[in-house]
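Methods: example folding runs. The two proteins below were folded one after another, and each record is reproduced exactly as written to the output file, sequence line first and structure-token line second.
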Amino acid sequence: METQPGYDELAEQYELAFPDPFQTPLERHAVAAFADMVLDSPGDGQVLDIGCGTGHVTAELASRGLRVVGIDPSHAMLNVAQRSHPDVPFRPGDADLSGSPELTNQQVPLQGVLARFSLIHIDPHLLVGVLDSWAKPMPAGGVVLLAFQTNDNDGQPVAPFDHAVAPAWRWHPDEMSKRLAQTRFHEAWRTMSQPDSLHRFPECHLAAVRRP
């Protein structure tokens, strides 16, 4: 499991800067739509919020009736999350689930994965392996929602950018959809938002469903 010393150092400041789960109504509605898709999907499994940070969105999913666990490599972030939401389970871990059998127990199927602005820190060469680690324990009909800064240059589908905490990459939505398709996820919908006073880059929320 990789650690995130940058996020460890900034956990308390991060909580002060982002006390609410969402910065925009679009973010709130995208996560609500994801929750509804999971609740409407066949089976009754577990949802993982990967890169959950201080846990506010994890708690929002729990309030909507999902069986959710927040996952993050930063222990300081998890400490803040557990302090703020003592009734919600949080676990240390990273995006690649292949080394976390306790999180992919077939007795509790993996019904959904939320990854908001966390896969941006995954080396692009490793992304398909990470997505495949989600697909393998997830039954058909399971749901994924990704949020990420986008790159609208068709000639450069993946582009590094100067993230304040850790190395990061922006993804063209079509390229992200292509990587999902390689691991048996079919895109269901996407939303796009433009830069504003709070966001340097366009951002995308992209939902996909696990194919049989």
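Second run, written to the same file directly after the first:
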Amino acid sequence: MLATLVLAADQFSKHLALENLPLQQQVPVFGDFLSFYLVKNPGAAFSLGEGVTWIFTIALAAVAGVIVWLAVTRVRSRLWAVVMGLLLGGVLGNLTDRLFREPGFPVGHVIDFINTPWMWFFPGMSPAIYNIADIFIVGDMIAVALLVLVGVHMDGTREPRRGREEESTILGEGDETPPGGDVAGFGDEFPVANPDAGIPRDERGLPPLSEAEQRAVEREADREAGGDRRDA
């Protein structure tokens, strides 16, 4: 659906350009920021490869096929589906020109008409002239790169965050120790200390002493220790 909308928008804009713009003449729109300049491009960006148009036709067809294959077999994420759909629409827009425009199949010229004079890529070269399909192709390639960088997979899963991985140590994720059990991941190699060790059986399970009771116990222990020293 998205691919169809992009393809329709691209072809309609090219139709309007062919009907209303003079060929290879500057038509200002917003001063030096945006203008229309209609050209029929047999090559790639910056008119490179003008003599081998058929190679670009094969390349576009191959890219479209790969996108469809990925969408059918790999993509399960709605975000990836949107990106791939828009990208496919842009590729089909230029592929349609290669297949059906003059001078003929499969060496048709791509219709370019959008010119941004301030945007150039290499010193000494003229700014690129492009179309709606090119905008979606470049924009969605950037989106693909961002999705890969942030770790969003085509099936919708995400890469675990590095911080989460660093929190996990050799003792197991988060060093989690189940109550009364062994250290996670090591069986009985690291037994857990018995919390009742050293406590008389008849005193186990009793509530802890208050602060006043603890001081009284300490004073009694001191008196008994002093008595033992005198007896000695």
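Comment on the second run: The two ends are 99 Å apart (CA to CA).
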